[in-house]
Amino acid sequence: MEAPTEPEDLFLQDPSKLPKTEPYATFSATDVGRVLFQNTEWANDPQFAIGTDFDSRRLAGIQGFAFHNLEVAKDESDPHIAIKTLEDTIKLCFHSGMWPITRQPMPNLRQQLFVSMLSINNFIIAWCQGIKTYLLIDPYLYPQEFHPVRVVHAWTLVLLTLYVSGQQDDPAVQQMHGQGVDFGIIILGLLNHVSNNVENSHGKGSSFAETVRMRVPSILSDIFPQSPPPMAALNAALEQQWKCLSQMAMWLKV
After folding, report:
1. Cβ neighbours, 10 Å, residue 252
2. What angle do CA 202, 183, 149 make, to 5 degrees?
């Protein structure tokens, strides 16, 4: 069976470029040594196989370890422990120099981190993770704008952005305002995405489409008590917001 060759299935570099020294400070020396040099459980598993040479087996070990940690985090009852596992695993993949943010398990690790951050009411970090997924990962993995995953992620961000925008005393929110973030424009852009695509993604008569239809007017009236800005001005403002947020998202390594 040939290995997948879609862009999201490719590593950034050849396995021979995998660091030979220890860049993985977030894990104990025992863990890293087991993954990179001693482990055979994942290196020999066909679902993680990359090649038969030493570096390919090392990379297969890291890949298997990362998928394993994702499942461990999902089953962990303490969200703080889960968050530590997820963050460390994302760092492990990132510092290997091999993973694009769109190759699994990176997208699922980030989505699980989003869920775990919500569970401990860390809404700011969850919002940042959600924005990175929405702008830089979802369009790559799901090119169709009406893909159900993209529409659900957009709607979740609408509700989360509404909450975050109300935390005006939070230093992180104030910093984002200083960087040019306009939560009202962002919400409007997300609402447009959901409203324009929900019938294709979930069906006109679905409960989700009905929820969106009922909630949109009240959300709009909360953001723009008078009326939304003209469409031409909105499109220009939204383009600027996506550019600003994309830059912020690229800075977010974990």
Report:
1. 14
2. 20
